[in-house]
Amino acid sequence: MIQIFNGPPEGLQRAPHELRMLAAGHRVAVREVAFTGVHHKEGLMMAFLGGLALTDHFGRNWDALFDVLTDPGQFPRDLALVLCDYPYFRRKHARLAADLETVLLDAQARAAETGRRLWLLVQESDAHPDARL
C-alpha cells in the first residue's frame, strides 16, 4: 500500500486508515470538516468555520475560503483537510459540491506553487455506506 503522504497531494483522495498516526509521522497537520447535516452554502461555510477553527471574521464565501486555505500564516506548511461524510454530501448536493471542489482544487494548486502541500482527503462514513468517492 502506498503511503499517501509520501507523494504530493493529487486532487481529492480517499483518506487512509490510521490517518492521524500517518500524518503525525510525516508532520502533517490534520483538520476535519464534517458535512453531516450540510444542505446549503451557509451551512457549508459554517462547517469550515468550525472545522478549521476560524474566527467569526471569516467571510463565509468562496473567496474567503480560498484565502484561508492558501494563507501561509493560517496553517502549517503541510495540511491534510479531511472531508468527513463528503461522498454523501456530494451525491445529494452536486452543484454545491462542484463549486466547493473548484475552490479546494484551486487552493491545492496555489499551495503547491508556494511550496506548501494541501491534501484533500475524503473520509467515508459508516452512516452512509452507499456513498462512495
TrEMBL record:
Domain of life of the organism encoding this protein: Bacteria
Residue stretches in coiled coil: none
Pfam families linked: Barstar (PF01337)
Gene3D superfamilies listed in its UniProt record: Barstar-like (3.30.370.10)
Protein name, as recorded: Nuclease inhibitor
Similarity comment: family membership: Belongs to the barstar family.
Annotated InterPro entries: Barstar, Barstar-like_sf
Sequence ranges assigned to domain Barstar (barnase inhibitor) in this UniProt record: 29-123
